[in-house]
């Protein structure tokens, strides 16, 4: 028997805070209560003055991702280890088949790549093309492999972009399977056109990246996906919402009663688009990710929508490329591999800029860093909750601890940090994964291969509600 007792802290769940000890036995939370006694041989953590919260869930990462002619520098080990150092104990990554590649082949490939993960992980699967085998494989993935969400890239023309026909077919299939469709919302045709126009005008540097992907390009795609989902009566989750316009589109749809969900990245909440006009190519290129960082003003709008509940989850889109890889686009910004890091920093950025500023309560912090993702992707309360029977994935949070982010000291293998120089107050003192202390007072003890693939059952509660609504609104023929 392997046990761990976390004593004297304040347990924070999405619904409340309480003074309680947490006892973990064999990887599961055995008890949450006052004055718990430690079993013989138990590991002890004294958490006085600290918060004990569910470990973070990052619902959007790309480890070991072959993309734009290269591959991310963080594999599933280094990426999840970095997450653990920052209090994130689960990631949901993406299987992204090439167009025409059988889904199951790509799925098996990603499962193999992920075997070195240090924390628990799960997969969304991208639908990059349509055909009978895709229809069939979606069923196999949901019923046999525990996949309950499918991703659709509305951008990246001539690569992984899917057209409306694929969106419609896939959304409908996802609904029948009880799986959540998700979208990367950017109009890929407009991006392609604007990229050519920028280059014709002699704009070849990274400043061309945001100029070819303005907020309306994102909002158009988001509104189209939301409208398609509305017609098909399917829920929809918009990943990496970066602009006020897109957040407003989600808020409007929700106000109409539609089941639309939005994710915001830690980076989009605190970084603005001035980075692309930096005279250093390396600095500007290191920030190239899609959708791009936005003009000042959008960050505040995203915070407000997160606070108001139009956006429910926070993620990172952790997708790291080093300077040598980014240099592929030195003469043409559209060839800079898209992606930035953040899996290690997300929780502390959210605490520092969210809780310390009064935008979020500690319980709301738990909602947006773990509980809501767990609910939407049907992992709750196994993950995202400090309660008896849940996985012992926890973070002991020191609200007085400080840290200054830097590429020089990060655990990610990337050579850049988009939060470089930012000092935060509120950091993890301990991270616990499956009941084992994997990070303690700055010391990382991640173990390659210790992470497990987590199956996620289909038909989360929102599907029952949608089904009832659809049944009541079923069309009726006129008897003549
Ligand atoms: O620029 C980004 N976000 N790279 C990763 C792929 C994606 O679009 O999520
Ligand atoms: Zn994306
Ligand atoms: Zn992504
Ligand atoms: Zn490199």
Spans with pLDDT under 50 lasting ≥5 residues? Answer: none
The end-to-end distance, rounded to whole angstroms, is 72 Å
Gross CATH architecture: Alpha-Beta Barrel
Strands in their spatial order, largest beta sheet: 8-11-12-13-14-15-16-17
Q: Can you summarize the main beta sheet? A: 8 strands, parallel
- Counting DSSP H or I runs of 4 or more residues, the number of helices is 15
Portion of residues in helices? Answer: 25-40%
Walk me through what this model shows.
The protein has a single domain (54-384, 454-462), classed as Metal-dependent hydrolases (TIM Barrel, Alpha-Beta Barrel), CATH 3.20.20.140. The chain starts with a strand and ends in an 8-residue tail after the last helix. Helix 8 runs parallel beside helix 11. The protein has helices at residues 76-85, 103-113, 132-145, 164-177, 188-200, 208-211, 215-232, 244-255, 266-270, 281-286, 298-308, 323-326, 346-355, 362-376, 461-472, and strands spanning 3-7, 10-12, 17-19, 21-25, 28-33, 43-46, 51-54, 56-58, 66-67, 70-71, 88-95, 120-126, 149-153, 180-184, 236-238, 260-265, 313-315, 394-404, 423-433, 436-440, 443-444. The strands form four sheets. It has an eight-stranded parallel sheet with strand order 8-11-12-13-14-15-16-17. Strands 3-2-7-18-19-20-21 form a seven-stranded mixed sheet. The protein has 15 helices and 21 strands. By secondary structure, it is an alpha/beta fold. The protein binds N-(aminocarbonyl)-beta-alanine and zinc ion (3 copies). N-(aminocarbonyl)-beta-alanine (URP) binds next to loops. Keywords: Hydrolase, Metal-binding. Its EC number is 3.5.2.2. GO terms for molecular function: dihydropyrimidinase activity.
């Amino acid at each position: 028997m392997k046990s761990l007792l976390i004593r004297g802290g304040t347990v924070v769940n999405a619904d409340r805070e309480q003074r309680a000890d947490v006892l973990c036995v064999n990887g599961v939370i055995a008890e949450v209560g006052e004055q718990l006694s430690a079993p013989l041989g138990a590991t002890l953590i004294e958490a006085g003055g600290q918060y004990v919260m569910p470990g973070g869930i990052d619902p959007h990462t790309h480890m070991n991702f072959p993309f734009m002619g290269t591959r991310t520098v963080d594999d599933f080990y280094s990426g999840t280890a970095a997450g653990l150092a920052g209090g994130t104990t689960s990631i949901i990554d993406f299987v992204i088949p090439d167009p025409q590649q059988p889904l199951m082949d790509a799925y098996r490939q990603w499962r193999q790549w992920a075997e070195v993960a240090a924390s628990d992980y799960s997969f969304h699967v991208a639908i990059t093309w349509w055909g009978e085998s895709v229809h069939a494989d979606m069923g196999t993935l949901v019923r046999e492999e525990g996949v309950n969400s499918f991703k659709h890239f509305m951008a990246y023309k001539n690569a992984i972009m899917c057209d409306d026909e694929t969106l419609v077919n896939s959304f409908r299939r996802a609904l029948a399977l009880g799986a959540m469709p998700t979208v990367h919302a950017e109009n890929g045709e407009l991006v392609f056109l604007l990229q050519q126009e920028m280059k014709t005008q002699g704009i070849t540097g990274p400043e061309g990246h945001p100029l070819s992907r303005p907020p309306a390009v994102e909002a158009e795609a988001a509104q189209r996906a939301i409208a398609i989902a509305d017609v098909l009566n399917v829920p929809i989750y918009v990943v990496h919402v970066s602009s006020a316009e897109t957040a407003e589109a989600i808020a409007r749809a929700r106000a109409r009663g539609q089941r639309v969900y939005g994710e915001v990245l830690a980076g989009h909440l605190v970084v603005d688009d001035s980075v692309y006009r930096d005279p250093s190519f390396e600095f500007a290129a290191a920030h190239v990710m899609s959708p791009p960082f936005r003009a000042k003003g959008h960050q505040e709008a995203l915070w407000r929508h997160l606070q108001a509940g139009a956006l429910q989850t926070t993620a990172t889109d952790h997708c790291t490329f080093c300077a040598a890889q980014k240099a592929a686009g030195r003469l043409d910004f559209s060839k800079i591999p898209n992606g930035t890091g953040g899996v290690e920093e997300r929780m502390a950025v959210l605490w520092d800029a969210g809780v310390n500023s009064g935008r979020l309560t500690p319980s709301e912090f738990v909602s947006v860093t773990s509980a809501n993702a767990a609910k939407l992707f049907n992992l709750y309360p196994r993950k995202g909750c400090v309660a008896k029977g849940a996985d012992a994935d926890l973070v002991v949070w020191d609200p007085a601890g400080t840290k200054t982010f830097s590429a020089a000291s990060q655990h990610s293998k990337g050579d850049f940090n988009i939060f470089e120089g930012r000092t935060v107050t509120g950091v993890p003192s301990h991270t616990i994964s499956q009941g084992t202390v994997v990070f303690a007072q700055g010391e990382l003890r991640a173990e390659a291969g210790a992470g497990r693939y987590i199956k996620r059952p289909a038909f989360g509660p929102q599907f029952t509600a949608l089904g009832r609504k659809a049944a009541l609104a079923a069309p009726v023929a006129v008897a003549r």
